[in-house]
Amino acid sequence: MSHGSFILREPEYEALLSALRKLMVDASAKVVFLVDKDGTLLASAGDAAGFDTTSLASLAAGNIAATGGLANLIGEKEFSILFHEGERDNMHLSVVAERLILVVVFDRRSSVGLVRLRVRQATARFAAVMATALAASEEELEVVEELTEADIESLFK
User: Fold this and answer.
1) At 78, phi and psi to the nearest 5?
2) What does each C-alpha distance from 129 to 7, 8, 23 come to in angstroms?
3) How many angstroms separate the CA atoms of 77 and 13, rounded?
4) 65 half-sphere exposure, CB direction, 13 A CA radius
5) Which run of H or of E encompasses 132?
6) Fold of 10-155
7) Do residues 53 and 32 lie in contact, with contact meaning Cβ atoms separated by under 8 Å?
8) pLDDT tens, N- to C-terminus, the chain (157 residues)
9) What's this model's pTM, rounded to 2 decimal places?
10) Count of alpha carbons within 13 angstroms of residue 147, beta-carbon side
C-alpha cells in the first residue's frame, strides 16, 4: 500500500494545513483530517479534541484498503470516495493524490453534495503540495544515494 517515504517539510505542512482550514470553512465541516495511506495522521483542522486521532487515522486507512479489495473484485482500482452516514455526524473519505486520505466530518449544517463539491475543489491544492513534497524528497534521496562507501567510512574515522 505504501508508495515509499516522503518528507513533509514546514512549508508544505503549512500549505496543507491552510488548505484543510479553508476546506473546513467552505464545506461547513466540524473537523477535517489528512491521513497518509499507511494510517498516519498528517494534519487536522477544526475541533479534534473529542477524537482519538490515532485510531481514526488507522481505521480510515483500513477502510480505504478494505474497500480497495472490494473494488478489485469488480475490476476497479479503488473506490476514491466513501461516505458514511450517522445519526448525528457524517463522514466523507476521499483519496487524494493516490497517497493521502482526506476525512471530512460534518453534521446537518452541511450536506454531502456541498462536501463533495468542496473536496473536489480542494483536491488540486492538496495534490500540488504533495507534488512539491515528493519532488523535494526525491532530491534529498538522490543526494543521500551519491554517498559512496568511502564517504561512509570517513565518517567513522
Assistant:
1) -165, 165
2) 12, 10, 15
3) 28
4) 13
5) helix 112-145
6) Beta-Lactamase (3.30.450)
7) no
8) 345 567 788 999 999 999 999 999 999 999 999 999 999 999 999 999 989 999 999 999 999 999 999 999 999 998 989 999 999 999 999 999 888 999 999 999 999 999 999 999 999 999 999 888 878 766 665 555 556 677 677 778 7
9) 0.82
10) 11
Per-residue cell: 104: 471530512
Question: Which of 151, 84, 94, 144 is closest to 119 using CA atoms?
Answer: 94
Q: Give per-residue pLDDT as tens, 110-140.
A: 999 999 999 999 999 999 998 888 787 666 6
Is there a contact between 116 and 92 (Cβ–Cβ < 8 Å)?
Answer: yes
**Residue matched to cell numbers 469488480:** 74
Cα-to-chain-centroid distance, residue 71:
20
For the chain, the structural domain boundaries read: 10-155
Side-chain half-sphere CA neighbours of 73 within 13 A: 6
Per DSSP, 69 falls in state H
Q: Could you tell me the three cell numbers for 143?
A: 543526494
